[in-house]
Amino acid sequence: MTHQYDTVRPVNWQNGQLHLLDQRKLPQEQTVMKLENASNVAQAIKDMVVRGAPAIGITAAYGVVLAAKAAYAIAPDSWQTVIESDLQQLAQARPTAVNLVWALEQMKACFAKITGNPVPVLLEEAKRIQQEDIEANYRMGDLGAALLPSSCRVLTHCNAGALATGGYGTALGVIRSAYAAGKITQIYADETRPWLQGARLTAWELLQDNMPVTLLADSVAATLMLQKRVDWVIVGSDRITANGDVANKIGTYSLAVLARQHGIKFMVVAPTSTVDMNLTEGSQIVIEERAMEEVLTIGGQPIAASGAEAWNPAFDVTPAALVDAIVTEKCVVEQPTLERMAAMMKN
Ligand code: MRU
Q1: Does the pTM exceed 0.90?
Q2: Cβ(247) to ligand 1 under 6 A?
Q3: Residue 293 and residue 11: Cα distance in Å, rounded?
């Protein structure tokens, strides 16, 4: 299949700096934040300058390059010890997406073979992680698109697109590939309160590629399904446990329950770097809780009655039983179970 709709790249290494497209400012402004130290990289992940599980991992990998550069300059013989605190800061930037620790482990695995200046080896590794993520997305795009019928209408949640990955996207990668193949007639995107990743980011990146998008307030999904206006729900993931339970943006679980009730298919698209075989089930996943201001305000403007409190879990867990297909770069796991997930990972 072709991968013709592919213009956005959120993370770039240029002139010895890490360039991040500031996703807090989209779609109004396209601003690039230029970073030169690991501590600022960790802060940028925390603050959602960059977000989305694979993109966070890739960013952290480049953060390790910056950490090693600084540490080697002051302590050429013990840089690996000096960067320990930076590594910890990066690992703790956000808790739910396993891609973050996965990428840091990949980087650490290179340490043993480094003699002398670590920067060239680590930079090559960070670039490899990004490039392999893009290639995994192309592959998942093909595998996922093949599952869709012709004239398919799809609904996605949050942003699991180019902006959330090295490029091309997971859920949006499938939608891009299927659209290029002429299989998709309608793309619905949930606005995704409270951060509005759907309204601000998914809509923006699809329009960058001249793909049509119809936004929905999050509460519209039930009516959309009842009126038979959608065929597949397609989402990404932040962490998938060994049994196939799926953590993703808050609201994903509601969509899965609704989809099952209305006989609509539910697809999760995620690379194997999102699969955490160390956790047996979704209840073990740490769900990030963010500040209540994110719910009480929009764009910095208060929207709630003064004095109201809010609860703001950023993710939820969809049980494997509600998932029709998990698409990874290795293969499609239909009706995921512990055994099928293990077989896919060994593949
Ligand atoms: O809080 P965010 O914006 O980082 O949440 C992102 C999501 O939930 C995505 O769906 C997920 O990371 C998959 S990205 C390919």
Answers
A1: yes
A2: no
A3: 27
